[in-house]
Design a protein that fits this description.
about 425 residues; Helix Hairpins; BirA Bifunctional Protein, domain 2; 3-stranded mixed β-sheet; about 40% helix; elongated; RNA-binding
Length: about 425
RNA sequence: GGAGGAGUACCCAAGUUUGGCUGAAGGGGCUCGCCUCGAAAGCGAGUAGGUCGGGGAACCGGCGCAAGGGUUCGAAUCCCUUCUCCUCCGCCA
């Protein structure tokens, strides 16, 4: 959420910056109008309340002294109704302002390139060598089906389309990757291992920025507590510290979290219908940081390196792009996507996304830290990144490590976890 | 599922029986000093509190004691609803 005071003071600049995302944010002028009315009402009603409180205290005093109070009581009736009416008017304005701000995205960082769609995302790094095949490489769904490690038909029977059953060494590969990634981040990169609930409540979804705008993407449980399946570990992880004031000495807080993520993929009905690139359920190792504001950009760089380290260790070719203003996520100021080479697409595909939300989520979730020098509690900055999407890493391994005979070589770094060196 | 108990500021914890002078005692914490090679402990001094509105600031005021409603001139304290945690019983991976 944007800070209303900042919005008040820099309305034009903020609208201009938000408009780089490609949608109009002129409606924010209405928020400022409401805010002006709201503050006017606050001043009036608070004056009345102050008077009312003062009179009440006087009554207490009179009673203690044994003096009559009836005359004073009669005077107070009139103001009560005015106070009630003003409070109600304020409540309406508060709600309207909040509803609008909750649907307003984060301000892109100054450095984010302006663009019209994802084709404008600049490539900032290319790493690793693409495999050279002396045969026609197969897609991961062809390989996986032939090796009987991926089973789409049975998954559809059990659940629906866009699910998969992993079998045999395919299932083990998924599990090996989860362990490999978690170990790397916990042992080498200083993250604390967490295992989080896969079900989250509405407040959590609002705080991290999924709701109210993207409700259609979530799986809602049929339960009167308004619960949802976890769409990304970012949601439960950020909400670990909702409504908390953190000691400065405890920052930065860094969590690594493996979760299974569930998404409706509401806006992607016809895309990536084959294979395991886009499923309703997928596994992901996520990195989350809570940092002091002046640390968030260095922390973003470090997080990107931690994610890249996985691909480097697995010797998978990838590139890093920076998301332009049009492609930038709702809650984020700046995002790097890591894209892995996928031979079947003859292209790079997203395998991870590393973002800084600055104070946007912290403000929604009310997460602050208390500065050691005695300053006011201040919103932390939050970051989150994939480290990495596990299913898409399986795709990359199957396709990049495929052999002419249809078997899959296991990357050296993963052999201790797989305990075999190939999938046959 | 049944029966009890409890939620007070960054943390712990008084206050709830008897509604008012309670922004809410007291600790811890935090800051500084002494001590020490340095630290810890100990001792001494100091500090404040969350949030919103007004103000350049000092400061003034509103809200606020799990959340939401109610009674009252006045609620941490009385009433109602909800949530969470703890204990015991039952059931269960």
């Amino acid at each position: 959420m944007l800070d209303i005071k900042t919005l008040r003071d820099h309305l034009e600049a903020i609208i201009e910056r938000l408009n780089r995302r490609g949608e109009s944010h002129e409606y924010l002028r209405g928020v400022i109008d409401d805010d002006t009315k709201r503050r006017d009402i606050i001043q009036r009603v608070e004056k009345l309340k102050a008077k009312h409180n003062e009179t009440s205290r006087a009554i207490g005093k009179l009673k203690r002294e044994g003096k009559p109070v009836q005359a004073v009581l009669d005077q107070m009736e009139a103001d009560k109704d005015t106070i009630k009416a003003l409070d109600e008017a304020r409540r309406v304005l508060d709600e309207r302002i909040e509803a609008t701000l909750l649907r307003t995205p984060n301000l892109p960082h100054k450095s984010v390139p302006k663009g019209k769609d994802e084709s404008d995302n600049p490539v900032i790094k290319i790493a690793g060598d693409k495999p050279v095949f002396d045969f026609e490489p197969k897609s991961h769904w062809e390989l996986g089906t032939a090796l009987d490690i991926l089973d789409f038909e049975r998954a559809a029977k059990i659940a629906a389309s866009r699910f998969v059953v992993y079998k045999g060494l395919g299932a083990r590969l998924e599990r090996a990757l989860i362990n490999f990634m978690m170990d790397m981040h916990v042992e080498n990169h200083g993250y604390r291992e967490t295992l989080l609930p896969y079900i989250v409540n509405r407040e959590s979804m609002v705080a991290s920025g999924q709701f109210p705008k993207f409700e259609a993407d979530a799986f809602a449980l049929k339960d009167d507590r308004e619960l949802y399946l976890n769409p990304t570990a970012e949601v439960p992880a950020i909400n670990m510290h909702r409504d908390e004031i953190i000691h400065e000495a405890d920052l930065p807080i860094q969590y690594a979290a493996f979760t299974t993520a569930f998404r409706q993929e509401a806006g992607s009905a016809g895309r990536d219908t084959r294979g395991i690139i886009r499923l309703h359920q997928f596994n992901k190792v996520e990195l989350i940081k809570f940092v002091k504001p002046d640390q968030s950009y260095p922390a973003l760089e470090a997080m990107l390196e931690s994610s890249e380290a996985i691909l480097k260790a697995l010797k998978l070719p990838y590139r890093v792009v920076e998301l332009c203003t049009a492609d930038l996520g709702f809650a984020m100021t700046k995002t790097f996507d890591i894209e892995v080479w996928v031979p079947a697409y003859n292209n790079y595909r997203e395998i991870g996304s590393i973002s800084n939300a600055e104070a946007y989520q912290a403000r929604r979730a009310n997460i602050k830290y208390r500065p050691k020098d005695g300053g006011k509690p201040t919103f932390v900055h939050t970051l989150n990144g994939s480290g990495l999407a596990v299913g898409r890493t399986v795709v990359a391994i199957l396709e990049n490590y495929q052999q002419k005979d249809g078997t899959i070589k296991i990357p050296d770094a993963l052999i201790p976890y797989m305990r075999v060196d190939k999938i046959t």
